[in-house]
Each structure stands twice: as structure tokens, then as C-alpha cells.
Amino acid sequence: MTESFHVLVSRRLKGAALLSLLGAGLLVWRLFDLQVIRHQAMADSGRAEKTRNITWKPKRGLILDRNQRLLVWNTEQTTLVAGPKRINRKPAELAALLAPILSVSEETLRARLESDQVEVTLKRSISEEVAARVEAEIASRSLLGLDFRKEPNRHYVKGQLAGQVLGFVNIDNQGQAGIEKAEESHLAGKEIQVHARRYNDKKVILDLDYMREVPLRGADVVLTIDETIQWIAERALGELCAEQNAKAGMAIVIEPNTGEVLALANYPFFDPERLGEYAASGEMERAKNQCITNIYEPGSTMKPFVVAAGLDCGAIAPDSIIDCEGGRRYLPPGLRSKPILDEHAMGRVPVTEVLVFSSNVGAGKIAEKIVNLDPESPSKTRFVDYLHAFGFGTRTGIELPGETKGLLTGWERWNLNDLLVTAFGTGPVMISPVGLAAAYCILANGGREVQPHVVKGYLANRNSNLYPTQVGTGRAVVNRESARLVREMLVQVVERGTGTRAKSDWYKVGGKTGTAKKVVNRVYSASHRALSFAGFAPADPPRIVVVVVIDEPDELRFGGLAAAPVFRKIVDETLAYLHVTPDFSGPAPTPDGKNVKPGKRPAGRQPLFPPPTPDGDQTPTPDKESPEEAARVAALENPDFALGRTAPSRETAPEGDRREQW
Q: Which of 99, 104, 163, 470 is most open to solvent, judged by the fewest CB atoms within 10 Å of its CB?
């Protein structure tokens, strides 16, 4: 029996061992099958269960100034949303509860809560205080179907600084104006489909391979605008416009050799952060970038281009004598019923004096010489071709949206009167401030066309490489000698002519005043004027071109009194900021004939931005000026259109006044 027991146990052990060995063999085969033979198929199946494709939308790119100082960046706003099918209260009851907290009408909330949509937005951009009150109501009343969402938002770091240039976005974070709109494709980036890994808590993250490749945000846009120069221009412009209660003001600072816009200032100012306030109060006109959307008659700022064209084509020489006819020129009655007038009467004078004392008669005479360069074959085309080359009647092509094309209308039908009034910047010619700045760059850089632009390049947010924009080299409009001669004449305009209020204490500058009457109720108005000054600094070689336009100030009536002082302030502060060596390093004479020590401002010129007053504000101090000096400057400044209060505009002039050709 004992032997039989041992045999039985032995058999059973052998059977168990055999079964174990067989099981182990099957397990090894199964593992081999899964991990070796079917490895790829199983890996793909597992990945499909744990990953899914999602749409990756990068954050919006930043906007930086030329020195990569931050102007616009991204923040988040809190949004309250509701699921109408998930709420556990009647829509009317929930609307009555939330309306006073959200400051939204009950009717609006009720309509949204009764919607058939899966999710509706109740209020965007709510404050932390409001969010806390809503959360308290949700907790105390056990409300269901209400959730908070974090949505992207734009923050304009400098407030109103360059507000019209930067623009703004809509509630969906899409650019609607300014750089935000112009560079939408770069700033927004590109949506892509990527793999995301899902975990038990339902959170998803990108696969490691995709995290190395997907864009964190759209491209950062680097502007040509300099934050400091923009502030200088806005401050100088705002002081004058506020003091004179001007309708609007524009100031442009541009680098003449490259066309890079260093400042583009508009008054009234616009703060993108206060967009809702402006919309509610009907002040959305503030958002308009008037430097590129507004066109106006350039007035006497047109005359340097007429002189440059005459010198370039050989119609006049630097020592040519122009007969200004005592400041009063009559045309046949069929062409013009009133004489062309100069405020400063002159007879036969050199070309320089035509610009220095802003002679309408003289500018018209030079335009005639250009047309009649070949007496046997007079050509208006020659004159108009020069104007087109300077940019009149065209767009500059600046990247900002909404640029208005300048006007140079109906030149094929011009008669003699049309030619003459165009030569001193009125009648059938209009231009935007940025267009005028681009034209003055041609004179400042030696006669070459430039492309004004505000985008310097794009900054890759992964490697911080700057990819500059490509701006082509423009053609030569006039020869270098002609441009140089006109610059020298414009220096004399500031030294002793109509632009003396633009004279800097530290730098030799050149420029031209402009006073253009505006058309009101189909006639030229004596009280509605666009006053301007356009020039460059320093004189040799020019580093910046500055254009200032003051639209309808209360009291000042001439560009030399309104725009020229703003030009001076911008030039003084900008060139100092750029570390440009002053032209006047020794003692400089003051108006009373005395000298001042180097490095000190002459008497009578106050600092641009005086020290704060006790209440913390800064109060500008006007230049001291005698009534006699003010009267002298006003007498030198030439109103650019002298037909009288009821002169018809070109659009309404009788056909008989321009039917005669010459």
C-alpha cells in the first residue's frame, strides 16, 4: 500500500510538472507573439486608444517696438458661460438672479438661457470680484450648468501710446485695425492638427515630438516705431492741440534713407484698452489713423517740389531771377476773377527768395517754366510726371490698412489757373501726411524714392531670430545736386523766412510752412484751415524728416505759428535722444544779441517738458514773444490760397472758368 501511494504521488507530480511546463511554454509563446510578432500592431492600437488628434491654435504673437520693447502682449479674461440644457433653474429665474451681478439686462440673459445651443456666453471679461460673487451664488444655491472659461485677451502695455498704429482686436481675438489687422496672418499663427495624449483625469498634453515642433504663438511683430520718439511726438503734438482746441493733429517722424517710420502720432489719442468706452460715447473716430486716412491740400509745403523739378529738368538755375510781380498776378477773366496774391510783396528775386518768403506768384512762374521748357511743344505731362514721382496722386504703400490715395485730378484738362494753383498746393492736389513725409524724404536723402514702412521684421518665438522685411530701393526722382540746392533753400526758410518758429537752438534744420484753407459748404473757408510744417534735421546730413499738421486750431491761422513750434520740439528732443552731435556747440546768439554759454538754452526758450507742478502735473510754458515779433512772423507767413471767402472749389467751378487751354 505504501508502494502504491508513492507511485500515485509520483505520477501526479509528473503530471503537474508537465502541465506547468506546457503552461509556461504557452505563456512564452504568447509574450513572443505580442511583443515581437504583433508588436507594431499592438502599439498602434494602444496609441489610438490613448491619443487623439486635436486642433492646436497658438497664442497671438506680441508686438514690439524697434528696440524690442514690449507694446502688446497676451493676457486672459474670465468668461461666464452656461449650458441651457444643463441648468437646474428656470431661465427667467436664473436671469433675474444674475442680471444685477453681471450688469446685463434680464431680457438679454433670458434670451441666451433659452437658446437651443449647447453652450452660450453670458458675460465676457468679468472682474475677479464679479466672478467671486457668481461662484458664491452657485455654491449657496447649488446651481448647475454655469461654468467659467479662460479666454485670450490683448493687453496694450503703454495705454494710448501709438494706439492708432497698434489698432485693436475683436472679442474673438482677431485684428480689426492697425497693425493687429495688417499683420493678422503673422500674429495669429496657423492652426495645425497634432496628437495629444489622454490620461485618466481626462487631461491631455501634446506628444513630446509635437511639443518640439508646434508654434507656441504666432510670430512677434517688430515695428520700426521707437517708443521714446513716439512719446516725444505725441507729447509735443498733444500740448499744442489741447491748447488750441484743435480738431485733430498729426505728426510723423521718418528716417529719410530707409523709409522707417520712427513715430506716427495722432490727436485725439486712442487707448485700445478703452474701446468699449469710445464705442458707447460715439468717439470711435479716435481709432482712425489720420496720418494715412486723411488727405488735405498741402499748401506751401508743395513749393519745394516745384523748385526741385525746375532745377532737375533745367527750367531754372540756382541763380535764376523770378518776377513775382509785386505779389499780385492777374489772369484773364475767363480763367480767374481775382488775382493770385502774395502776403509778402516782392519783385524780381532769386529762386531762393521764392521759397524763403513763400511766394505763390513765384511758384506758379516756375511751374510755367517747366511746362514751357520746350517753347515749341509745351507739356503739362513733364510737370505732372515730377509730381507723380514725388508721390502726389498715389499711395505710399505703407503696411497699415486704410491708406487713402492722394489726389491729382483732371490734369489733362488743366488750364493755366489750374497749373498755377497746383504749384502752391491748392485746387486739384491733395495728399496725406504720410505721403508728404515720403516726398520730403526724397529731398532729404539726395533725390531717391523711399518706401515708408512701420514693420521692421518678425521675431521667431522659438529661436528669437529676427527676420527683417524686404524693402526695395527706390528710383531717383531728381538728381542729388538739385535735392541739395533745395535743402539749402529750405534752411534759409527757417533761418530768415516764414519758418523761423521752427529754428532749433542746437541743430541747423530746414523746412517749409503750409497754410491750406479747407472747403466748407462748397467754398473755401477763412476760418477752417489745415496748418502744416514739413522739414528735416539736421541740415547736413539729414537724420530725420518730420511732418506736422494741425487741423482747425481755434486761434492760430498760419503753419509757421501752429505747426513749426511742434516741429522744433520734436526735432530737439529726438536728435538728443539719438545722440546726434549738435551743430551749435559754441556760444549762440539770442534774439537780444547776447550770447549764451555752450550747453545752455538761449533765453526765451523754455524746456519742452518743465518740472512737475505741486499737483504732479506738467504745465507747458509758452515761448516769450513780443507782440511785434508775433506780428512780423504772421506777416511773413503766406496764406496759400487767396481767392477770398467765397471762392469756388475746383469741384464746383463753372465750366467756363477752365475751358480755355494754353
A: 470
Element (H, E) at 310: helix 303-313
Q: Please, what is the average pLDDT of the chain?
A: 82
User: How many angstroms separate the first and last alpha carbons of the chain?
Assistant: 147
C-alpha cell at 609: 517738458
Nearest alpha carbon to residue 338 among 329, 347, 349, 327: 329
583/503 Cα distance (integer angstroms): 12
Give the single-character DSSP code of 175: B
**Cβ-contact 31, 42 below 8 angstroms:** no
- Contacts of residue 474, Cβ cutoff 8 Å, sequence gap at least 6: 448, 449, 450, 451
With 0-12 / 13-18 / 19 or more C-beta atoms within 10 angstroms meaning exposed / middle / buried, residue 593 is exposed
DSSP 638: -
Phi, psi for residue 368 in degrees, rounded to 5: -60, -40
DSSP string, 434-470: HHHHHHHHHHHTTSB----BSEEEEE-TTT--EEEPP
Residue among 420, 273, 237 at smallest CA distance from 332: 420
Contact criterion met (CB below 8 Å) for 294 and 404: yes
Question: What secondary structure does DSSP assign to 114-149, as a single string?
Answer: T-SSS-EEEEEEE-HHHHHHHHHHHHHHT--SEEEE
Q: How far apart are CA 246 and CA 253, in angstroms?
A: 20
The answer to whether residues 527 and 505 touch, using CB atoms and an 8 Å cutoff, is no
pLDDT digits (tens, 9 = 90+) for 29-62: 877 777 777 767 666 655 554 556 666 678 899 9
pTM above 0.85, yes or no: no
Q: DSSP E strands: which ranges in 284-426?
A: 321-323, 328-329, 340-341, 348-350, 407-408
Instruction: Let me know: does 392 contact 423? Beta carbons within 8 Å.
Output: no
Grid cell at residue 82: 452656461
Residue of 358, 314, 353 lying closest to 534 (CA atoms): 358
Burial profile 307-329: b = 16 or more Cβ within 10 angstroms, e = fewer = bbbbbbbebbeeebebebbebeb
| Close Cβ partners of 321 (under 8 Å, ≥ 6 residues apart) | 348, 349, 350
> What are the pLDDT digits (tens) for 193-232?
666 665 544 555 555 455 555 667 888 999 999 999 999 9
Pick from 289, 269, 267, 274: which is nearest to 156 by CA? 274
To the nearest 10 degrees (0 to 180), the angle between helices 416-423 and 360-371 is 120
Q: What is the CA radius of gyration of the chain?
A: 36
Three-state SS letters, 426-439: CCCEEECHHHHHHH
The amino acid present at 503, given as its one-letter code, is K
